Amino acid sequence: MRVSEKTGRKYCAQPDKLCFKAGSAIALWGHSQYILQQPAEEKDGDIYISAADMSRLLPGAKELGGERAGVCAEAASLGLKTSRAAGILIVSLTEEEIRVEKNKEKALQWSMSPRGVGELFRAVWLPEAEVVNSYRLYVPSAWKSLKEKKMAVVLHGAGGKEDDPFDRAEGKLSYYAEKYGFLLLAPNSLVVRSNFGGNVPPSGMFREPRFTDAQGKPSYYPQAELEENAVAEAGILKIILGVMEEFSVNKESVFIMGKSMGGIGTFHLGAKYPRLFKAMAPAGALPEPSANDWSAYEGRPILFIAGTEDHNSYEKMAEDYEYIKSQSVDIRMVTVGGGVHSTAWTWEIPQIFEFFNANL
Question: pTM (2 decimals)?
Fold first, then answer.
């Protein structure tokens, strides 16, 4: 298991394999595409990639000499198993050797092919954290011809990863993004419980601050986690801005949403970067009302979604909502009858996109 040396928190992305193909600049890191600095090259039965990429992708491959290094040789030196399928070299990052069945070779090849629309899986090196992290996209099929290039950032919950919002929605998220013409971006939070950079916890999680930060102020989290949360936020921001540039997203048409920890991250990023996000749609969690600066939300519309069966207590969320509303925040609450914590928001996906469209 990959964990942060700084805090011991588990990284959200836990890739099980690395895949390389001679002549291709696309490598698979888990199931996410990572673009190599140079195409992989086959020589003497081994696959060679740049030493820089090797040190980033392969756990334990540090300070390699030379410009290029052999994947098989390096994997063997680290005790990692390798196999081949359909001309693709596979390095197992677990103790188990990865064997690809014949009827799944085509799917493996497709996952390594360049694509421009639909569901895309990406991995990128984040120098801020000195790790590779992953994110997922949905690009509408008519994206290039759309006049209004809109994007919604979707944040996952604690303990989850970038696939979780798509999985929880059971296809509805991509379906409605296609229908409403939104590019979707779901970044990883880097480590569990990073709050996507936010340092105000969900309402009711802690009775009071138990730590002090570097300035001696009360804090709900230890200093090491505060610092790592900031690193996670920098990485997320880099991914957001990079995707916006790559896909020519209109800077006035970016929105943010998220469930649970993703809801806390939505409140945090939406307030901290008001020029970036036009409106917010958090769900399933509200930041501790007494610890949050509600003046930072002036002019930012918020659609908050809560299910009556949410284990975070619907009654408490409704109470907090009334307090937040009293602070002159432009927020309205949608109640999902029978909705549980993990999926209540999915029933309101059409309303979320309509809300975003109404705030263009």
Answer: 0.96
Residues with pLDDT less than 50, the chain: none
Residues 6 or more apart whose CB falls under 8 angstroms from that of 103 comprise none
Last residue of a domain, one of 65, 96, 111: 111
- Tell me if residue 69 falls in helix, strand or coil: strand
| Counts for the chain of helices (H) and strands (E), in that order | 9, 18
Residues 225 and 343 in one domain: yes
What domain count does the chain have? 2
Of 360, 203, 341, give the one whose Cα is nearest residue 278. 360
Domain boundary among 54, 76, 111: 111
Q: Which domain holds residue 100?
A: 17-111
Verify that 348 and 255 share a domain, yes or no: yes
Chain center to CA of 203: 23
Angle between helices 261-272 and 223-246 (to 10 degrees): 70
Query: Two tokens at 237?
Result: 């921001």
- Give how far Cα 11 sits from Cα of 161, 210, 232, 245, 262, Å: 9, 24, 11, 26, 16
CA-wise closest residue to 95 among 32, 1, 19, 30: 1
